[in-house]
Amino acid sequence: MMKRRYRDSQSQGQPRHKWRYNPEGDSGFLKDEKPTNLITQVADYYSARTNKTLEQREASPIIHLKKLNNWIKSVLIQLYARRGDSVLDLACGKGGDLIKWDKAMIGYYVGIDIAAGSVEDCRTRYNGDADHHQRRNKCSFPARLIVGDCFDLKVPFDRVLERDAPFDICSCQFAMHYSWSNEARARRALANVSALLRPGGTFIGTMPDANVIIKKLREAEGLEISNSVYSIHFGEEFARKKFKSSSPFGIKYNFQLEDAVDCPEWIVAFNVFKKMAEEYGLDLVLVKNFHEFVYDFMKNPEFVELMRRLGALGDGSPDQSTISPDEWEVANLYLAFVLRKRGQPDRARANNRVQREHTHIAKEDIMVIRSED
Ligand SMILES: C[S@@+](CC[C@H](N)C(=O)[O-])C[C@H]1O[C@@H](n2cnc3c(N)ncnc32)[C@H](O)[C@@H]1O
Prior knowledge:
The protein has 373 residues and is α/β, with parallel strands linked by helices. Helices cover 36% and strands 22% of the residues. The chain has one domain: Rossmann fold (3-Layer(aba) Sandwich), CATH 3.40.50. Helix 4 (63-80) runs parallel beside helix 13 (325-331). The longest helix has 18 residues, at 63-80. S-adenosylmethionine (SAM) binds at residues 39, 42-43, 46, 91-93, 96, 112-115, 118, 149-151, 173-175, 178.
């Protein structure tokens, strides 16, 4: 594997902003648990997750939720991806969206994830190699895969991806909240997206809906909210269940989702996210809690048919299983968003993009970026 080290970043500077660092709040957070340790914990957790056979997957207690999540991501991709688009998939994981991008007939794909094991699985999927006896189709678009921390302050992604950018679409599915461990990382995440998208380009994503989580927390007796498939636990530092609007970063909780997640995550206050995104030239196009998303897009017969095919709600026949109330409650903990980068497309720059032909990725083609502490 190719390895790179970066000592400092040449990425664009941070714009002026309203939310100032809260040294007291941040140092309190840093004293107990260094974000670096938590970031490693997240990376190790996802890297260690093994692939499942089709039978194991179907037996998962959250299989319908997983199918619903796939439906939501598919709808976002179908709505915003155009044939030939160049796509940047931040926190691409095991490449669970590769088939969706292939169906959208994109022209180029770059996937980045902090978990080396997941990127290796993504490579296998991309190449169409059989996995657990599952036949897979090879992806038809050229691609590049990178192991790295998408929100690292020391990694200048605009330089790393200089020959790949600008992208028409940036996608960050179920991962943006990992950047909210502190303000600098949250800003770096948005700065990276903005620097790499073309003017007029689209940023699509899904992440926890902080409004719902905080509301449930306040309604709960203790510091935990849960049902049979998930639990969210806040530390004693949040015993008063009050969150200062002056320090919206570093609000950590532990999230466990049966058969899917078990690691630290951070609250993303959407109003702050929206305003901060505007500072980086990214304007809100759409935000919908998953429940609202389902109700709204199920009015479209094309997406009803897609839902039937994916089987998240069963296939309509009475003997078919469907999403359970507990899974549906978890869906309510998430939202989908779409942002658009301000400006008009710069055709000259888009045409400069390096033409890539290959549709096979070897192990040694994966670039590994390690930043120095
Ligand atoms: C819930 S999974 C989602 C994976 C994929 N986007 C999907 O929808 O299938 C979250 C992913 O975020 C990745 N991740 C977490 N923090 C990251 C970081 N700082 N940089 C890159 N990837 C990160 C994890 O390794 C994991 O693959």
